[in-house]
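Section 5: illustrative case.
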């Protein structure tokens, strides 16, 4: 590489080559214990070498990328990514075990360590789905899938998402059966010495707070790395917990091949430049001990070099191939053009049934009397008497009807079981035993096992970045699970901005990797102060590639909605998994609307033939020709305006039009509604958010 492409920043593995031995042995040890899939999160350092030498990435395609080409075919809609974030599914074959292990290499946003929780989420749901497919009732999470995460020493010690990920690794709804963490500890971070990258003695010490064992090993001795792999996988399989292997190595060149490391580390690099390469030392040891002949060693090197030269020549004309899509994703289509939206309504009999069962509980569960009085009885009364239902009921109807159709729902976030505003109560906690009961998981007790989906209610630990990254991993692995992360308050998502930017909003654009993750972000200026009001709708719109001043030719990268009725929210949730493609959805969710008497919906609004409407006209206008002013608004402010309008003597001359979906902006639907008001001359956008938002 230094001879052929000396000016390419490839972040080489020289000085840490034995990491390849370690990873190969980890996979081999896993295969001996029944592991069939490995979810591999790789760091920048050595990624290209590992892809080529271990994970079977076609070398001609890799060299095409190194020479400035794309990892995708010519004409692909995907932009591609940096060389050190590359990924492609691979496989490793072990003939002596008669086993092939699939390697799911993660696409990785460039933000260091952000891929750690993504791999955790992806591996957990992959393992669970395998067990479901095999109808394995004795399944323990981690039986089939192993997560391996490679880190740099400085980022492992420095990035907060590492501590967040380790802290949730043993939690009930987040464990993946244990991740094997490999710290490529070359004792320097870019130009910063270890003494300035951490307070602790070892780069791996952060793992101690989570009672995670750490194996320190000398990276210049490949046999020792193989022994560390054996111990690590045996521990993981026995206890189903994370374990860290801290590999002490060195970095032969600078941070990348264009850097001059002696500017800042002259003494370190004086010592490094005097060291023989690790492969050369190991080769010498094997020859001197009689395990290998010089001719055999030369033949191995010549064969590899010959294959590289052939790949280098082929890279000039080779055509990159699209990464293979996982079987579940092959059941869906692309998102290249605007879809014809299907109806998402459900029969009112089914809605009624689900609504009743959403608050049902057995005699063994003693529900809190206030929940009985203010949650269960009012819901039953509305349903029995045919009245409009509130937001929490519509949400339960959306989840319950999807479960009856075989979809799974994973609702994650801080306090989501009860709900931040004590509105949801998706789970009842027995007042005698503290046993948790999820009514929607008991709708069809007489239905064949496995036919109804499962609602997983995940009261997460108190962090955002790692949890959102985890849920993204779930969403990209399983498009048939409605995966939702709800912020306690909308602005709490701020701490996960790295995941929103690097994965959720841009993953499909960069990698062709769809995801249907939903972010529910409670929003509204209700006197809660500056840090509990705005979910920053403007930031999400800035992330959207929906054109501002032109008609779109393709779907945007993200959907952003601010629905104003429970029925609209019901349809949004169902639409998310009923489409034949997946897009992330950002929902500015309700706070005051949760209990607002006028913010309710009839079951008929969720019945057969109904769907989400991106624009809602003014239902109070009897004569559109009388309208002089049209006010455009989103979300809860509609109800304040509607109340004022109803009390104003000139109210019939003003129409309030609700923009329910902001990305993609509903141009055609808006034109259709506005065209009714033929005499209107005054058009106003109204919002409670600051003007520059």
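Designed sequence:
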């Amino acid at each position: 590489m230094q001879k052929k492409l000396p000016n390419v920043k490839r972040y080489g593995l020289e000085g840490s080559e034995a990491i390849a031995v370690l990873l190969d042995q980890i996979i081999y040890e896993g295969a001996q214990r029944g592991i069939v899939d490995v979810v591999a999160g790789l760091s920048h350092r050595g990624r290209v070498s590992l892809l080529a030498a271990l994970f079977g990435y076609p070398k001609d395609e890799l060299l095409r990328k190194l020479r400035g080409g794309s990892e995708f075919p010519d004409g692909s809609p995907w932009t591609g990514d940096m060389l050190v974030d590359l990924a492609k599914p691979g496989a490793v074959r072990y003939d002596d075990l008669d086993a092939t292990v699939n390697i799911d290499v993660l696409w990785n946003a460039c933000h260091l360590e952000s891929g750690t929780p993504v791999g955790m989420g992806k591996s957990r749901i992959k393992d669970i789905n395998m067990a479901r497919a095999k109808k394995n009732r004795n399944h323990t999470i981690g039986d089939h899938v192993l997560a391996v995460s490679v880190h740099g020493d400085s980022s492992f010690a420095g990035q907060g998402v590492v501590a967040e990920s380790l802290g949730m690794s043993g939690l009930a709804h987040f464990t993946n059966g244990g991740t094997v963490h490999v710290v490529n500890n070359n004792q320097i971070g870019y130009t910063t010495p270890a003494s300035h990258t951490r307070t602790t003695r070892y780069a791996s010490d952060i793992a101690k707070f989570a009672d995670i064992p750490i194996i320190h090993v000398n990276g210049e001795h490949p046999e020792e790395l193989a022994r560390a792999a054996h111990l690590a996988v045996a521990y993981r399989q026995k206890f189903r917990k994370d374990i860290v292997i801290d590999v002490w190595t060195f970095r032969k060149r600078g941070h990348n091949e264009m850097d001059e490391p002696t500017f800042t580390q002259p003494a370190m690099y004086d010592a490094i430049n005097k060291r023989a390469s690790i492969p050369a030392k190991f080769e010498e040891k094997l020859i001197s001990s009689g395990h290998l002949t010089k001719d055999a060693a030369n033949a191995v090197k010549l064969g590899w070099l010959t294959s590289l030269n052939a790949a280098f020549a082929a890279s000039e004309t080779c055509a990159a191939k699209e990464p293979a899509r996982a079987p579940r994703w092959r059941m869906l289509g692309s998102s290249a053009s605007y879809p014809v939206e299907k109806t998402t309504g459900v029969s009112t009999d089914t809605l009624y049934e689900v609504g009743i069962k959403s608050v049902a509980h057995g005699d063994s569960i003693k529900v809190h009397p206030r929940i009985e009085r203010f949650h269960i009885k009012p819901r039953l009364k509305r349903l029995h008497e045919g009245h409009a239902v509130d937001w929490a009921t519509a949400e339960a109807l959306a989840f319950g009807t999807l479960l009856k159709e075989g979809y799974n729902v994973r609702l994650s976030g801080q306090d989501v079981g009860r709900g931040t505003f004590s509105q949801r109560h998706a789970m009842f906690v027995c007042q005698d035993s503290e046993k948790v009961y999820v009514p929607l998981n008991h709708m069809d007790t007489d239905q064949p096992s496995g036919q109804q989906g499962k609602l997983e209610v995940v009261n997460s630990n108190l962090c955002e970045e790692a949890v959102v990254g985890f849920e993204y991993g779930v969403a990209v692995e399983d498009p048939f699970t409605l995966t939702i992360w709800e912020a306690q308050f909308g602005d709490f998502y701020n701490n996960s901005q790295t995941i929103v930017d690097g994965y959720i909003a841009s993953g499909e654009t960069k990698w062709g990797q769809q995801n249907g993750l939903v972010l529910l972000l409670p929003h509204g200026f209700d006197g809660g102060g500056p840090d509990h009001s705005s979910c920053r709708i403007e930031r999400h719109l800035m992330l959207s590639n929906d054109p501002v001043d032109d008609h779109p030719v393709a779907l945007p990268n993200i959907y952003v909605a601010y629905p104003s009725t429970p029925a609209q929210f019901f349809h949004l949730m169902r639409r998310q998994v009923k489409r034949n493609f997946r897009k992330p959805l950002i929902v500015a969710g309700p706070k005051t609307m949760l209990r607002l008497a006028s913010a309710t919906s009839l079951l008929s609004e969720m019945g057969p033939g109904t769907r989400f409407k991106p624009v809602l006209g003014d239902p109070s206008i009897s004569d559109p020709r009388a309208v002089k002013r049209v006010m455009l608004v989103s979300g809860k402010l509609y109800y304040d305006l509607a109340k004022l309008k109803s009390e104003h003597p000139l109210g019939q001359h003003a129409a309030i039009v609700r923009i329910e979906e902001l990305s993609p902006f509903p141009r055609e639907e808006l034109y259709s509604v506005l065209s009714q008001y033929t005499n209107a001359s005054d058009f106003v956008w109204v919002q409670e958010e600051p003007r520059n938002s």
